[in-house]
Amino acid sequence: MSVDRRQFLAWGTVAAGAALAPGLRLIELAQARSPQEAASVLQRWGLLIDITKCTDCDRCVSACHEENGVSGHERPATDAQWIRTVGLRDTRTGHAQTLPLMCQHCEHPPCVDVCPTGASFKRDDGIVLVDKHICIGCRYCVMACPYGARSFVHEAVSGQKADVPRGKGTVEACTLCVHRVDRGEAPACVQTCNRDGGKAMAFGDLNDASTEIHRRLRSEPSRQLRADLALNTGVRYQGL
Q1: Number of alpha carbons in the 13 Å side-chain half-sphere of residue 136
Q2: Residue 74 · residue 82 · CB < 8 Å
Q3: Which of 68, 78, 169, 206 could form a disulfide with 137 if both were Cys (CB 3.0 to 4.6 A apart)?
Q4: Predicted TM-score of the model (pTM)
Q5: Where are the domains of the chain?
Q6: Burial class, 58, CB count within 10 angstroms (exposed 0-12 / middle 13-18 / buried 19+)
Q7: pLDDT tens digits, 21-66
Q8: How many secondary structure helices (H) and strands (E) does the chain include?
Q9: Which residues, other chains included, contact 170 with Cβ-Cβ below 8 Å and sequence gap of 6+?
Q10: Residues 159, 132: contact at Cβ < 8 Å?
């Protein structure tokens, strides 16, 4: 995907409403703690991406989809894109960049504001999620997201994983691999990038002064996407 930088910064998403498939049932989280119980207002999970270190390898996308049971062959049918790479080009200079784009886990998420059932919600620790059991597939959240970060599952999915419930007729997006975070692990994209890629991603508690991400955000310049919207995103970018 390649877009003009100005077009990207003014990104919008258009989608139509749809009804939830009758009889839809989703797998339960196996032996998992309640997300609300696991979360704490003392934490704010965040992600810092240095796009000058991105090697255009697409490893973060593959790692995300493998971890969350999003198979490559289903993506055209379901529009599943929990994370995707976006190409930016400055029309004045011709300078081109590539960055990974996912849910920005806003402090003030528009998707939560427009959800009529409460299916879209923000945990106390800042992670924005969708409760698939009460999502009615209206896609208001898809239209409200300024980053085009949410997807609607149009067809039945297979190969689901116990920690990541998915289902036809519902909306989904990056969860920061919340099931891993609650086990004290980094998201799959971060782990893979730091192991096999350019070490472009840092994940951690934005409120903890001892973490790498906190230190780097205080000492190095970074940007929010669409900072003009004052959403205070949990995902920040360097080199943009």
Answers
A1: 9
A2: no
A3: 169
A4: 0.80
A5: 2-21+31-238
A6: middle
A7: 333 333 333 334 444 455 777 899 999 999 999 887 889 999 999 9
A8: 9, 10
A9: 20, 24, 26, 130, 132, 135, 137, 152, 153
A10: no
Tokens of 8: 């990207």
Tokens of 107: 């402090």
Name, in order, each residue with C-beta under 8 angstroms of 235's C-beta and a sequence gap of 6 or more: 46, 47, 48, 49, 102, 103, 104, 105, 224, 225
- Reading the block at residue 55, the tokens are 């090697």
Cα–Cα distances (Å) from 55 to 66, 101, 195, in that order, read 20, 15, 13
Domain over 2-21+31-238 is classified CATH 1.20.200.10: no
For 98, the enclosing helix (H) or strand (E) is: strand 96-102
Query: Rounded distance, CA 33 to CA 211, Å?
Result: 25
With 60 as the cut, is the pLDDT of residue 3 above it?
Answer: no
Cα end-to-end span (Å), the chain: 17
Scan for tokens 């000058």, then name that residue: 52
Exposure string of 105-120, with b = 16+ CB inside 10 Å and e = fewer, is bbeebbbbebbeeebb
Task: Write the Ramachandran bin of 176: left for phi over 0, alpha for psi from -120 to 50, otherwise beta.
Answer: left
Phi, psi (rounded to 5 degrees) for 228 = -65, -20
